[in-house]
Amino acid sequence: MERTNTKKTRKIVLLALLTGIVVLLQILAIVTRPLFPMFSISLVLIPIVIGAALIGTYAGGWLGLAFGLSVLISRDAAPFMAIDPAGAILVVIVKGLLAGLAAGGVYKLLAGKNRTLAAICAAIVCPIVNTGIFLIGAYIFFLPTIALWGEAAGFANTTTFIFIGLVGVNFFIELAINIVLSPTIVRLIRYGQDKRGT
């Protein structure tokens, strides 16, 4: 009984720590935005993947939700809030939540076969789902305004602007960071699992 309580306490502490890291990384992204005005890189996806693997799928969902709330509180979604506040809130919350749940689901699905492969696939799936949900939301809630932004930026086609001008560079940088850091993510997950087992 005491061992079970200790494990639960460790999970709660780890989840709280990772939640703090998610919020901190989102704040850091806002603070460093003037240095990189063309990019909005989500490094918060890394602790989401780690939490999803170490604690479980629902922990990944919680961390994704914390990411979404941090984006809203930090006003990182302000341009979209000005267009459609309800749509912006829905998109930001859902994309973070589903990215975390997807990372956890993929890890859980593959971990029995190969934990390294599971961690790498979870690290890849997380930014894909995050960006994919944003793209769907962009078409549903913000398309007329995004079309105007595309015209102003010199794009003849709105879809080209969305994929190249709006999310293209950010997505590939986020994906590359997650892939490059996958070995580190794997080591952190293994370390956490070894500690959890003791």
Describe the SSE topology:
Layout: H1 2-31, H2 45-54, H3 57-73, H4 78-83, H5 85-111, H6 115-141, H7 143-152, H8 158-166, H9 168-180, H10 182-197
Helix pairs in contact: 1-2, 1-3, 2-3, 2-5, 2-6, 2-10, 3-5, 5-6, 6-9, 6-10, 7-8
Q: Mind explaining what this structure looks like?
A:
The protein is mainly α. The protein has helices at 2-31, 45-54, 57-73, 78-83, 85-111, 115-141, 143-152, 158-166, 168-180, 182-197. The chain has one domain (2-197): Arp2/3 complex 21 kDa subunit ARPC3 (Orthogonal Bundle). The protein contains ten helices and no strands. The radius of gyration is 18 Å and the shape is elongated. The two termini are 15 Å apart.
Compute the CA-based radius of gyration.
Answer: 18 Å
Uncertain runs with pLDDT below 50, 5 residues or more? none
Overall mean pLDDT stands at 85
Order of helices and strands: HHHHHHHHHH
Going by CATH, the architecture would be Orthogonal Bundle
Query: Which CATH top level class fits?
Result: Mainly Alpha
The name CATH uses for the topology is Arp2/3 complex 21 kDa subunit ARPC3
Helical fraction equals: over 70%
Distance between the termini: 15 Å
Shape: elongated
Tally of DSSP β-strands = 0
State the major sheet. none
Number of helices: 10
Structural class of the secondary elements? mainly alpha
Give the assembly state of these chains.
Answer: single chain
